[in-house]
Design goal:
Number of strands: 10
Strand content: 15-25%
Order of helices and strands: EHEHEHEHEEEHEHEHEH
């Protein structure tokens, strides 16, 4: 299968001061998709500009015509399935069916406490995600939904006319634990990983490849348990968080080597960060654009 190459554009630029230009350029460069993070603020960018994901994607949908668009990823940290479903159906309509929803259980970042709640434990996040995702699936595929859950409920929630994409827009489920992988196997058209975070600081690229191989094997087992062929699930690696860090973007050859190793594992889509100077995602823009236009052809 041909490897797809996508990018993630952090929402740190005003739309009319560089923001729009990046999404347009992503389409011109031929990326399969362009995603953005769905956070209220994030890590070292907390004290600088940071715009909302869904309005940004709506603007990108009106500015582009071919590029797939999506979140990478949203989470229950500050969202509810009922309101999110309505926004996604609207966004899918505006984009003429070009939206992918990247979604995960969330973490302990600034989003976890921004609404005044205590940060959830890993078990609480898993419990909530286990309710959130199936309910969102129903809301995007059924005209009216009533469901009473421990954490999330819907009462006669109407979502006509539904998504442009049928039966709904695709889910790309971010997961590495057993409960999340089961959700990815059951509800995901794609699965997303950033690798093993424990290896980021002191691990090696070889250890990372082994860890990713293990994650893919666990996904395969989760699919087998419900009688699903794991080949039906696209496998997406969001790069920049393995021990390789930014080195794959240092040159075209470096990226082709990195991409080839991960394609052999079974990944069908790699996502690279749009360069941001003076950050963890700093990279040479010309090299980045050369990777965008030449790398996939070299992989065969």
């Amino acid at each position: 299968m041909t490897l797809r190459l996508s990018t993630v554009i952090l929402p740190v630029h005003r739309w009319h001061d560089g923001g729009r230009d990046r999404w347009l350029r992503a389409e011109e460069l031929g990326f399969h998709a362009a995603y953005t993070y769905d956070h209220l603020s994030w890590r070292t960018f907390r004290d600088g500009p940071w715009f909302g994901a869904l309005p940004t994607l709506t603007a990108a949908a009106t500015a582009t015509t071919r590029l797939r668009l999506g979140t990478l990823v949203t989470s229950p940290n500050f969202r509810h399935p009922v309101t999110l479903a309505k926004e996604l159906i609207s966004l899918d309509d505006i984009s003429a069916g070009r939206i992918t929803l990247g979604i995960g259980a969330g973490g302990n970042g600034f989003d976890a406490t921004a609404l005044g709640q205590e940060a959830w434990t890993p078990r609480e996040r898993a419990d909530r995600f286990g309710e959130f995702l199936p309910l969102l699936d129903r809301l995007l595929t059924e005209g009216a939904v009533t469901q009473h859950g421990t954490h999330y409920s819907a009462v006669e929630a109407r979502n006509l006319p539904g998504c442009v994409q049928r039966p709904r827009l695709p889910f790309a489920v971010a997961a590495t634990g057993p409960r999340g992988l089961k959700l990815a196997a059951r509800h995901g058209q794609a699965w997303v990983t950033t690798g093993d975070p424990k290896l980021y600081e002191e691990g090696t690229p070889e250890q990372s490849v082994d860890a990713l191989r293990g994650q893919i094997e666990k996904l395969g087992k989760a699919c087998a348990e419900i009688g699903r062929n794991t080949a039906e699930v696209e496998k997406v690696l969001l790069t920049g968080f393995t021990p390789d860090r930014g080195r794959p973007l240092a040159s075209l050859d470096a990226f082709v080597d990195f991409a080839g190793r991960h394609q052999e594992l079974g990944f069908t889509e790699l996502v690279i960060h749009w360069p941001i100077p003076d950050s963890d995602f700093a990279a040479d823009q010309q090299v980045f654009e050369r990777i965008a236009t030449e790398a996939v052809a070299q992989l065969g």
